[in-house]
Amino acid sequence: MTGPPGAAAPGPSAAPPATGPAQRAVPPRAALLAGAAGNFVEWYEFGVYGCFATVIAERFFTPAAAGPDPAAPLLAAYASFAVAFFFRPAGALLFGRLADRAGRRPALVLVIALMTLATTLIGLLPDRATAGAAAPWLLVLLRAVQGLCAGGEFGGAVALMTEHAPPGRRGRYGAWQSFTVALGLLAGAAAAALTASLLSPAALSGWGWRIPFLLALPLGLTALGLRTALPGPRTRTSAPDPASAPAPAPTPGIGTVRAVVLGVGRIMGWSAAGYTFLVVLPSYLQSTLGASFREALIATTLANLGFAASILPAGRLSDRVGRRPVMLAGALAVALCALPFLHLLRDPDAAAPAKAAALLAAGATVGLLAGPGPAMLAEMFPSSVRCTGLGLAYALANAVFSGCAGLIVTALTAATGDPDVPAYYAGGLCALSALALAGLRGDDHRGPLR
Fold first, then answer.
1. What single string gives the DSSP state of each residue in 222-239?
2. Who's near 137: CB < 8 A, 6+ residues apart?
3. Distance (Å, rounded) from C-alpha 274 to C-alpha 404?
4. Alpha helices (H) in 67-103, listed in sequence order
5. N or C terminus of the chain with fewer C-beta within 10 Å?
6. CA 358, 192, 220: angle at the middle one, nearest 5?
7. Model confidence pLDDT, tens digit, residues 246-256
8. Whose CA is closest to 323, among 164, 447, 207, 153?
9. Cα separation of 392 and 128, whole Å?
10. Are 135 and 122 in contact (CB under 8 A)?
Protein backbone atom coordinates (compact mmCIF):
# COMPACT_ATOMS: atom_id res chain seq x y z
CA MET A 1 0.00 0.00 0.00
CA THR A 2 1.14 3.59 -0.49
CA GLY A 3 1.01 6.36 2.03
CA PRO A 4 0.96 5.39 5.64
CA PRO A 5 -0.18 2.29 5.85
CA GLY A 6 1.75 1.70 2.77
CA ALA A 7 3.36 4.92 1.74
CA ALA A 8 6.44 4.76 -0.34
CA ALA A 9 9.57 6.96 -0.64
CA PRO A 10 12.50 7.56 -3.20
CA GLY A 11 12.63 4.13 -4.76
CA PRO A 12 13.61 2.44 -7.91
CA SER A 13 13.82 5.76 -9.70
CA ALA A 14 17.18 7.40 -9.34
CA ALA A 15 17.59 10.09 -6.72
CA PRO A 16 18.08 13.64 -7.97
CA PRO A 17 21.64 14.87 -8.02
CA ALA A 18 23.07 16.94 -5.21
CA THR A 19 21.57 20.41 -5.11
CA GLY A 20 24.67 22.48 -4.40
CA PRO A 21 28.47 22.44 -4.49
CA ALA A 22 28.73 22.10 -0.72
CA GLN A 23 26.44 19.08 -0.70
CA ARG A 24 28.04 15.65 -1.06
CA ALA A 25 26.03 12.58 -1.95
CA VAL A 26 26.44 9.43 0.12
CA PRO A 27 27.81 6.70 -2.20
CA PRO A 28 25.47 3.71 -2.23
CA ARG A 29 28.17 1.25 -1.17
CA ALA A 30 29.33 3.50 1.67
CA ALA A 31 25.74 3.72 2.92
CA LEU A 32 25.41 -0.05 2.60
CA LEU A 33 28.60 -0.80 4.53
CA ALA A 34 27.93 1.75 7.26
CA GLY A 35 24.36 0.56 7.76
CA ALA A 36 25.16 -3.14 7.65
CA ALA A 37 28.23 -3.06 9.92
CA GLY A 38 26.26 -1.96 12.97
CA ASN A 39 23.63 -4.62 12.38
CA PHE A 40 26.36 -7.25 12.30
CA VAL A 41 27.75 -6.20 15.67
CA GLU A 42 24.30 -5.99 17.25
CA TRP A 43 23.21 -9.44 16.14
CA TYR A 44 26.58 -11.00 16.86
CA GLU A 45 25.96 -10.14 20.49
CA PHE A 46 22.40 -11.44 20.45
CA GLY A 47 23.61 -14.68 18.88
CA VAL A 48 26.27 -15.08 21.56
CA TYR A 49 23.74 -14.42 24.30
CA GLY A 50 21.33 -16.99 22.85
CA CYS A 51 24.07 -19.62 22.60
CA PHE A 52 25.23 -19.01 26.16
CA ALA A 53 21.77 -18.66 27.71
CA THR A 54 22.22 -21.85 29.76
CA VAL A 55 25.66 -20.71 30.99
CA ILE A 56 24.36 -17.24 31.83
CA ALA A 57 21.46 -18.85 33.70
CA GLU A 58 23.98 -20.78 35.78
CA ARG A 59 26.31 -17.84 36.46
CA PHE A 60 23.73 -15.09 37.08
CA PHE A 61 20.39 -16.78 37.89
CA THR A 62 20.87 -19.65 40.30
CA PRO A 63 18.04 -22.07 41.23
CA ALA A 64 18.09 -20.84 44.81
CA ALA A 65 17.54 -17.28 43.70
CA ALA A 66 15.05 -18.09 40.99
CA GLY A 67 12.97 -20.67 42.83
CA PRO A 68 12.71 -24.44 43.23
CA ASP A 69 11.74 -25.06 39.60
CA PRO A 70 14.84 -26.30 37.70
CA ALA A 71 13.64 -24.38 34.63
CA ALA A 72 13.56 -21.12 36.59
CA PRO A 73 17.19 -20.05 35.96
CA LEU A 74 16.77 -20.46 32.21
CA LEU A 75 13.49 -18.56 32.36
CA ALA A 76 15.26 -15.78 34.27
CA ALA A 77 18.02 -15.67 31.65
CA TYR A 78 15.40 -15.38 28.92
CA ALA A 79 13.66 -12.67 30.94
CA SER A 80 16.85 -10.59 30.78
CA PHE A 81 16.97 -11.42 27.07
CA ALA A 82 13.40 -10.11 26.70
CA VAL A 83 14.17 -6.92 28.63
CA ALA A 84 16.38 -5.73 25.79
CA PHE A 85 13.53 -6.20 23.35
CA PHE A 86 11.05 -4.25 25.44
CA PHE A 87 13.41 -1.29 25.49
CA ARG A 88 13.59 -1.39 21.69
CA PRO A 89 10.40 0.62 21.07
CA ALA A 90 11.71 3.38 23.32
CA GLY A 91 14.99 3.31 21.42
CA ALA A 92 13.15 3.40 18.10
CA LEU A 93 11.31 6.53 19.20
CA LEU A 94 14.36 8.20 20.76
CA PHE A 95 16.93 7.51 18.06
CA GLY A 96 14.37 7.44 15.26
CA ARG A 97 13.29 11.00 16.00
CA LEU A 98 16.95 12.00 16.22
CA ALA A 99 17.62 10.42 12.81
CA ASP A 100 14.53 12.02 11.25
CA ARG A 101 15.43 15.45 12.63
CA ALA A 102 19.23 15.64 12.75
CA GLY A 103 20.11 13.09 10.07
CA ARG A 104 20.88 9.39 9.88
CA ARG A 105 24.61 9.67 10.54
CA PRO A 106 24.68 11.18 14.07
CA ALA A 107 22.00 8.79 15.30
CA LEU A 108 23.77 5.73 13.88
CA VAL A 109 27.15 6.79 15.29
CA LEU A 110 25.69 7.22 18.77
CA VAL A 111 23.83 3.90 18.59
CA ILE A 112 26.87 1.78 17.67
CA ALA A 113 29.07 3.48 20.27
CA LEU A 114 26.62 2.74 23.09
CA MET A 115 25.93 -0.81 21.87
CA THR A 116 29.63 -1.66 21.75
CA LEU A 117 30.20 -0.28 25.23
CA ALA A 118 27.29 -2.23 26.75
CA THR A 119 28.31 -5.51 25.09
CA THR A 120 31.92 -5.17 26.23
CA LEU A 121 30.78 -4.48 29.79
CA ILE A 122 28.71 -7.68 29.78
CA GLY A 123 31.93 -9.55 29.08
CA LEU A 124 33.51 -7.89 32.13
CA LEU A 125 30.50 -8.17 34.43
CA PRO A 126 31.04 -9.99 37.75
CA ASP A 127 28.73 -12.97 38.18
CA ARG A 128 26.51 -13.83 41.12
CA ALA A 129 29.28 -15.63 43.00
CA THR A 130 31.31 -12.38 43.00
CA ALA A 131 28.74 -9.58 43.06
CA GLY A 132 25.86 -11.36 44.79
CA ALA A 133 22.31 -10.23 44.11
CA ALA A 134 23.57 -7.15 42.22
CA ALA A 135 24.92 -9.30 39.36
CA PRO A 136 21.61 -10.12 37.64
CA TRP A 137 20.43 -6.53 38.02
CA LEU A 138 23.60 -5.19 36.42
CA LEU A 139 23.13 -7.64 33.56
CA VAL A 140 19.53 -6.50 33.09
CA LEU A 141 20.66 -2.85 33.09
CA LEU A 142 23.19 -3.49 30.32
CA ARG A 143 20.60 -5.46 28.37
CA ALA A 144 18.28 -2.46 28.64
CA VAL A 145 20.95 -0.17 27.17
CA GLN A 146 21.44 -2.66 24.35
CA GLY A 147 17.72 -2.69 23.75
CA LEU A 148 17.57 1.09 23.43
CA CYS A 149 20.42 1.02 20.93
CA ALA A 150 18.99 -1.88 18.94
CA GLY A 151 15.68 -0.04 18.66
CA GLY A 152 17.40 2.92 17.03
CA GLU A 153 19.73 0.79 14.92
CA PHE A 154 17.20 -0.84 12.63
CA GLY A 155 15.26 2.24 11.54
CA GLY A 156 18.33 4.35 10.85
CA ALA A 157 20.27 1.59 9.09
CA VAL A 158 17.40 0.45 6.87
CA ALA A 159 16.53 4.04 5.96
CA LEU A 160 20.16 4.78 5.10
CA MET A 161 20.53 1.69 2.89
CA THR A 162 17.19 1.88 1.06
CA GLU A 163 17.26 5.64 0.51
CA HIS A 164 20.62 5.38 -1.23
CA ALA A 165 19.92 2.19 -3.17
CA PRO A 166 20.49 2.36 -6.94
CA PRO A 167 17.41 2.22 -9.17
CA GLY A 168 15.57 -1.08 -8.95
CA ARG A 169 17.72 -2.44 -6.11
CA ARG A 170 15.92 -1.30 -2.99
CA GLY A 171 14.98 -4.85 -2.02
CA ARG A 172 18.53 -6.06 -2.52
CA TYR A 173 20.05 -3.22 -0.50
CA GLY A 174 17.49 -3.58 2.28
CA ALA A 175 18.17 -7.32 2.35
CA TRP A 176 21.73 -6.58 3.43
CA GLN A 177 20.32 -5.51 6.78
CA SER A 178 18.89 -8.98 7.27
CA PHE A 179 21.95 -10.62 5.73
CA THR A 180 24.24 -8.97 8.26
CA VAL A 181 21.82 -10.14 10.96
CA ALA A 182 22.43 -13.68 9.70
CA LEU A 183 26.17 -13.08 9.54
CA GLY A 184 26.13 -11.70 13.07
CA LEU A 185 24.18 -14.69 14.40
CA LEU A 186 26.51 -17.06 12.56
CA ALA A 187 29.55 -15.26 13.90
CA GLY A 188 28.11 -15.41 17.41
CA ALA A 189 27.41 -19.13 17.08
CA ALA A 190 30.86 -19.72 15.59
CA ALA A 191 32.56 -17.79 18.38
CA ALA A 192 30.59 -19.76 20.96
CA ALA A 193 31.34 -23.09 19.24
CA LEU A 194 35.05 -22.32 18.92
CA THR A 195 35.27 -21.26 22.56
CA ALA A 196 33.43 -24.40 23.66
CA SER A 197 35.70 -26.63 21.58
CA LEU A 198 38.92 -25.10 22.91
CA LEU A 199 38.00 -24.99 26.60
CA SER A 200 36.92 -27.55 29.13
CA PRO A 201 33.31 -27.35 30.34
CA ALA A 202 34.51 -25.95 33.67
CA ALA A 203 36.63 -23.25 32.04
CA LEU A 204 33.83 -22.38 29.63
CA SER A 205 31.35 -21.93 32.47
CA GLY A 206 33.83 -20.15 34.71
CA TRP A 207 35.32 -17.52 32.41
CA GLY A 208 35.42 -18.68 28.80
CA TRP A 209 31.90 -17.48 27.99
CA ARG A 210 33.17 -13.90 28.38
CA ILE A 211 35.54 -14.08 25.41
CA PRO A 212 32.91 -13.84 22.62
CA PHE A 213 31.33 -10.83 24.35
CA LEU A 214 34.69 -9.05 24.57
CA LEU A 215 35.26 -9.61 20.85
CA ALA A 216 32.45 -7.11 20.27
CA LEU A 217 34.86 -4.28 21.13
CA PRO A 218 37.07 -4.43 18.00
CA LEU A 219 34.04 -5.27 15.87
CA GLY A 220 32.14 -2.27 17.19
CA LEU A 221 35.08 0.08 16.73
CA THR A 222 35.31 -0.99 13.08
CA ALA A 223 31.61 -0.27 12.53
CA LEU A 224 32.00 3.07 14.31
CA GLY A 225 34.80 4.03 11.93
CA LEU A 226 32.67 3.25 8.87
CA ARG A 227 29.83 5.39 10.18
CA THR A 228 31.90 8.38 11.20
CA ALA A 229 33.41 8.37 7.69
CA LEU A 230 30.00 9.05 6.11
CA PRO A 231 29.40 12.57 4.76
CA GLY A 232 28.06 14.84 7.47
CA PRO A 233 24.81 16.76 7.96
CA ARG A 234 25.24 18.81 4.79
CA THR A 235 24.70 15.75 2.57
CA ARG A 236 21.85 15.84 0.05
CA THR A 237 20.67 13.04 -2.23
CA SER A 238 17.17 14.38 -2.82
CA ALA A 239 15.07 17.26 -1.60
CA PRO A 240 14.62 16.98 1.30
CA ASP A 241 17.47 14.54 2.03
CA PRO A 242 16.52 12.01 4.71
CA ALA A 243 20.03 10.62 4.90
CA SER A 244 21.78 13.22 7.01
CA ALA A 245 20.37 16.70 6.50
CA PRO A 246 18.74 18.35 9.51
CA ALA A 247 15.10 19.08 8.77
CA PRO A 248 12.01 19.66 10.86
CA ALA A 249 10.27 16.32 11.36
CA PRO A 250 6.53 16.50 11.94
CA THR A 251 5.06 14.63 14.85
CA PRO A 252 3.85 11.21 13.66
CA GLY A 253 0.08 11.27 13.17
CA ILE A 254 -2.71 8.72 13.06
CA GLY A 255 -1.68 7.56 9.57
CA THR A 256 1.78 6.72 10.85
CA VAL A 257 0.32 4.90 13.85
CA ARG A 258 -1.85 2.80 11.56
CA ALA A 259 1.14 2.03 9.36
CA VAL A 260 3.14 0.94 12.42
CA VAL A 261 0.37 -1.44 13.52
CA LEU A 262 0.09 -2.88 10.02
CA GLY A 263 3.86 -3.21 9.82
CA VAL A 264 3.88 -5.19 13.08
CA GLY A 265 1.29 -7.55 11.65
CA ARG A 266 3.30 -8.07 8.48
CA ILE A 267 6.55 -8.96 10.25
CA MET A 268 5.41 -10.68 13.45
CA GLY A 269 5.76 -14.09 11.77
CA TRP A 270 9.29 -13.18 10.69
CA SER A 271 10.08 -12.17 14.29
CA ALA A 272 8.62 -15.29 15.86
CA ALA A 273 10.06 -17.79 13.37
CA GLY A 274 13.45 -16.10 13.31
CA TYR A 275 13.96 -16.31 17.03
CA THR A 276 12.40 -19.72 17.43
CA PHE A 277 14.58 -21.34 14.76
CA LEU A 278 17.72 -19.22 14.95
CA VAL A 279 18.20 -18.05 18.55
CA VAL A 280 16.05 -20.10 20.95
CA LEU A 281 16.88 -23.41 19.23
CA PRO A 282 20.14 -24.18 21.15
CA SER A 283 18.54 -24.02 24.58
CA TYR A 284 15.40 -25.82 23.34
CA LEU A 285 17.45 -28.70 21.98
CA GLN A 286 19.40 -28.97 25.23
CA SER A 287 16.55 -28.61 27.70
CA THR A 288 13.84 -30.47 25.78
CA LEU A 289 15.59 -33.01 23.56
CA GLY A 290 18.66 -33.65 25.71
CA ALA A 291 21.15 -32.53 23.07
CA SER A 292 24.68 -31.61 24.11
CA PHE A 293 25.89 -28.03 23.95
CA ARG A 294 27.98 -28.74 20.85
CA GLU A 295 25.16 -30.59 19.09
CA ALA A 296 22.83 -27.66 19.73
CA LEU A 297 25.38 -25.21 18.36
CA ILE A 298 25.86 -27.28 15.19
CA ALA A 299 22.09 -27.40 14.66
CA THR A 300 21.79 -23.66 15.14
CA THR A 301 24.70 -23.00 12.78
CA LEU A 302 23.00 -25.06 10.05
CA ALA A 303 19.71 -23.18 10.48
CA ASN A 304 21.54 -19.86 10.31
CA LEU A 305 23.42 -20.96 7.19
CA GLY A 306 20.11 -21.67 5.47
CA PHE A 307 18.84 -18.30 6.66
CA ALA A 308 21.88 -16.46 5.34
CA ALA A 309 21.84 -18.26 2.00
CA SER A 310 18.27 -17.25 1.15
CA ILE A 311 18.19 -13.60 2.24
CA LEU A 312 19.93 -11.83 -0.64
CA PRO A 313 18.27 -13.96 -3.35
CA ALA A 314 14.90 -13.23 -1.71
CA GLY A 315 15.63 -9.49 -1.68
CA ARG A 316 16.67 -9.55 -5.34
CA LEU A 317 13.62 -11.61 -6.30
CA SER A 318 11.34 -9.12 -4.52
CA ASP A 319 12.75 -6.35 -6.71
CA ARG A 320 11.50 -8.30 -9.72
CA VAL A 321 8.20 -9.84 -8.64
CA GLY A 322 7.29 -7.72 -5.62
CA ARG A 323 7.53 -8.05 -1.84
CA ARG A 324 4.15 -9.77 -1.42
CA PRO A 325 4.69 -13.11 -3.22
CA VAL A 326 8.14 -13.69 -1.71
CA MET A 327 7.13 -12.89 1.87
CA LEU A 328 3.84 -14.78 1.58
CA ALA A 329 5.75 -17.86 0.43
CA GLY A 330 7.99 -17.65 3.50
CA ALA A 331 5.14 -17.15 5.96
CA LEU A 332 3.07 -20.02 4.55
CA ALA A 333 6.10 -22.33 4.42
CA VAL A 334 6.75 -21.82 8.14
CA ALA A 335 3.06 -22.19 9.00
CA LEU A 336 2.83 -25.52 7.14
CA CYS A 337 6.24 -27.01 7.90
CA ALA A 338 7.10 -25.98 11.49
CA LEU A 339 5.46 -29.03 13.08
CA PRO A 340 6.92 -31.64 10.67
CA PHE A 341 10.30 -29.95 11.15
CA LEU A 342 10.31 -30.47 14.91
CA HIS A 343 9.00 -34.02 14.55
CA LEU A 344 11.92 -34.81 12.26
CA LEU A 345 14.44 -33.38 14.73
CA ARG A 346 12.99 -35.56 17.51
CA ASP A 347 12.87 -38.73 15.45
CA PRO A 348 15.73 -40.98 16.65
CA ASP A 349 15.54 -43.01 13.44
CA ALA A 350 15.85 -40.03 11.10
CA ALA A 351 19.14 -39.86 9.23
CA ALA A 352 21.56 -37.09 10.12
CA PRO A 353 21.62 -35.70 6.55
CA ALA A 354 17.81 -35.43 6.62
CA LYS A 355 17.94 -33.49 9.87
CA ALA A 356 20.67 -31.23 8.50
CA ALA A 357 18.60 -30.55 5.38
CA ALA A 358 15.57 -29.75 7.54
CA LEU A 359 17.58 -27.27 9.59
CA LEU A 360 18.89 -25.58 6.44
CA ALA A 361 15.36 -25.41 4.99
CA ALA A 362 13.91 -24.00 8.22
CA GLY A 363 16.42 -21.17 8.15
CA ALA A 364 15.80 -20.57 4.45
CA THR A 365 12.07 -20.05 4.97
CA VAL A 366 12.81 -17.31 7.50
CA GLY A 367 15.13 -15.75 4.92
CA LEU A 368 12.21 -15.41 2.51
CA LEU A 369 10.62 -13.08 5.06
CA ALA A 370 13.77 -11.30 6.14
CA GLY A 371 15.10 -10.55 2.65
CA PRO A 372 12.28 -8.29 1.36
CA GLY A 373 11.16 -7.22 4.87
CA PRO A 374 13.34 -4.12 5.37
CA ALA A 375 12.48 -2.63 1.97
CA MET A 376 8.80 -3.43 2.51
CA LEU A 377 8.84 -1.48 5.79
CA ALA A 378 10.78 1.43 4.26
CA GLU A 379 8.13 1.71 1.55
CA MET A 380 5.39 2.13 4.14
CA PHE A 381 6.59 5.48 5.55
CA PRO A 382 7.50 8.93 4.16
CA SER A 383 11.05 10.17 4.71
CA SER A 384 10.07 12.63 7.46
CA VAL A 385 9.03 9.79 9.79
CA ARG A 386 10.67 6.81 8.12
CA CYS A 387 13.28 6.01 10.80
CA THR A 388 10.73 6.42 13.57
CA GLY A 389 7.94 4.51 11.82
CA LEU A 390 9.76 1.50 10.45
CA GLY A 391 12.00 1.31 13.51
CA LEU A 392 9.01 1.32 15.85
CA ALA A 393 7.15 -1.34 13.84
CA TYR A 394 10.20 -3.57 13.87
CA ALA A 395 10.93 -2.92 17.54
CA LEU A 396 7.37 -3.67 18.67
CA ALA A 397 7.21 -6.88 16.63
CA ASN A 398 10.53 -8.01 18.04
CA ALA A 399 9.68 -7.00 21.61
CA VAL A 400 6.45 -8.98 21.66
CA PHE A 401 7.12 -11.90 19.33
CA SER A 402 10.91 -12.31 19.48
CA GLY A 403 11.95 -11.11 22.91
CA CYS A 404 9.26 -13.22 24.51
CA ALA A 405 9.89 -16.27 22.33
CA GLY A 406 12.32 -17.86 24.75
CA LEU A 407 10.09 -17.18 27.74
CA ILE A 408 6.92 -18.39 26.05
CA VAL A 409 8.42 -21.49 24.47
CA THR A 410 10.33 -22.53 27.60
CA ALA A 411 7.45 -21.82 30.01
CA LEU A 412 4.76 -23.52 27.91
CA THR A 413 6.94 -26.52 27.16
CA ALA A 414 7.71 -26.93 30.87
CA ALA A 415 4.05 -26.46 31.86
CA THR A 416 2.50 -28.73 29.24
CA GLY A 417 5.27 -31.18 28.55
CA ASP A 418 4.49 -30.73 24.85
CA PRO A 419 7.70 -30.45 22.80
CA ASP A 420 5.72 -29.10 19.84
CA VAL A 421 5.17 -25.69 21.47
CA PRO A 422 7.86 -23.97 19.33
CA ALA A 423 6.12 -25.17 16.16
CA TYR A 424 2.72 -23.92 17.32
CA TYR A 425 4.24 -20.57 18.22
CA ALA A 426 6.19 -19.94 15.01
CA GLY A 427 3.65 -21.51 12.67
CA GLY A 428 0.63 -19.83 14.21
CA LEU A 429 2.11 -16.34 14.08
CA CYS A 430 3.31 -16.85 10.51
CA ALA A 431 -0.24 -17.84 9.53
CA LEU A 432 -1.53 -14.57 11.02
CA SER A 433 1.26 -12.63 9.36
CA ALA A 434 0.30 -14.10 5.99
CA LEU A 435 -3.11 -12.47 6.32
CA ALA A 436 -1.52 -9.04 6.82
CA LEU A 437 0.96 -9.61 3.98
CA ALA A 438 -1.87 -10.46 1.60
CA GLY A 439 -2.88 -6.78 1.72
CA LEU A 440 0.39 -5.57 0.18
CA ARG A 441 0.03 -3.96 -3.22
CA GLY A 442 1.82 -5.83 -5.95
CA ASP A 443 3.55 -2.73 -7.34
CA ASP A 444 4.88 -1.16 -4.14
CA HIS A 445 8.42 -2.17 -5.08
CA ARG A 446 8.21 -0.16 -8.33
CA GLY A 447 7.09 3.18 -6.90
CA PRO A 448 9.45 5.83 -5.55
CA LEU A 449 10.05 6.25 -1.85
CA ARG A 450 8.13 9.31 -0.76
1. HHHHHHHTS--TT--SSS
2. none
3. 12
4. 72-86, 88-102
5. N
6. 110
7. 444 455 578 88
8. 447
9. 34
10. no
